[in-house]
Every structure is written in C-alpha cells, then in structure tokens.
TrEMBL record:
It comes from Roseateles subflavus. This is Cytochrome C. Coiled coil: none annotated. Residues 6-103 form the Cytochrome c domain. Residues 1-21 form the signal peptide.
C-alpha cells in the first residue's frame, strides 16, 4: 500500500511538472517571456510582482482580458501590446494566468 501511494505521488508530480512545462512553452511561443520574467522586472513586471499585487483576489478573467486587450498604467507607463488568440489559446492563457498568480 505504501509503495502504491509513493508511486501515485510521483506520477502526479510528473503530471504537474509536465503541465507547468506546457504552460511555460505556450508563454514562450506567445512572446510573454520577451517582456516578463518570473522573478525580476524586464520591460513588464515580474510574475511574482503580479502575483503579489493580486494576492487573494479572483482576477483570472480580468487579467486574461487585460492580456487580450493590452494596456498600461497598472505597473507603470510602458504599454503592453494586445496578445490575441493566434498567439496563445484561451485555455493556455488561462493556465498561464493561473500559474502566474501562484508565483
């Protein structure tokens, strides 16, 4: 029984790592990483700073809309260009925003 639990735990960990890698790949393909980083400001804010700003808030839909429409002012004057579904699918965008909010 203990071996089964360990095996299941390891398997779930691999699924989580794989899903995380898929989201990272989608963000790279969409161009997100050209302006953002996980832990430091590049052109746009670091993902950890986005997570801190919205901690405890249900903002996934709001941030998805912000990515789709683009904008400026929340983290400074530099505008973020809109990112359409041709760059990142709605499903990948939702997973990316959820991952960023967990940073």
């Amino acid at each position: 029984m203990k071996a089964l639990l360990i095996t299941l735990s390891l398997g779930l960990g691999l699924v989580t790592v794989s899903a995380h890698a898929d989201v990272d790949e989608a963000m790279n393909k969409a161009g997100c990483m050209a302006c953002h980083s996980k832990d430091k400001k590049v052109v746009g804010p670091a993902f950890k700073d986005i997570a801190a700003k919205y901690k405890g808030q249900d903002v996934t839909a709001k941030l998805m809309e912000k990515v789709r429409k683009g904008g400026a002012g929340t983290f400074g004057p530099i505008p973020m260009a809109p990112v359409g579904p041709d760059k990142i699918s709605d499903g990948d965008l939702k997973a990316a925003v959820e991952q960023i909010l967990k940073s």
